[in-house]
Amino acid sequence: MATGALSRWVTTPVSKLGEMFLRTPALARAPIALYKAGLGGMLGSRMVLLEHTGRKSGQPRQVVLEVLGHPAPDTYVVASGFGESAQWFRNVMAQPQVRISAGRLSSAPAVARRLAPSEADRALSDYIARHPRAWASLKGVIEHSLDGRVDPPGTDLPLVELTVRTP
């Protein structure tokens, strides 16, 4: 079996399994319970709890996302692995005033902004350089869920910058 064929033979089922995990609400929402119990710090600074408002319902919503970058002490970059159709992404694009918890930071007011394509390419390239093994695992899952191109340059993966607001 050629290397490319072997890679597809292994990564396709793993990607489908990863996507199934992410699309199973009880599993995908499990980290939220850690934050609610005051144990979100256990997840370190690689994860962020994003509290946002439902664009139609006006109800509070929460999601835990991996931090792709932390370019400044008050700034976190996250990706929408399910693209522009992800509910959290649609919500923060409609209402960018959010709250975030990460590491020792707890429910801090922040503002969300979608990164421009060049900024997204740069942030994703930096993440891939810092975490090549994590990216190797995530890439297939994201490509399968997006059905699009995720590698920079020209990634189809929406990236969002979360900046803590100072009072």
Automatic annotation (TrEMBL):
<dbReference type="GO" id="GO:0016491">
    <property type="term" value="F:oxidoreductase activity"/>
</dbReference>
<dbReference type="InterPro" id="IPR004378">
    <property type="entry name" value="F420H2_quin_Rdtase"/>
</dbReference>
<protein>
    <recommendedName>
        <fullName>Nitroreductase</fullName>
    </recommendedName>
</protein>
<dbReference type="InterPro" id="IPR012349">
    <property type="entry name" value="Split_barrel_FMN-bd"/>
</dbReference>
<dbReference type="Pfam" id="PF04075">
    <property type="entry name" value="F420H2_quin_red"/>
</dbReference>
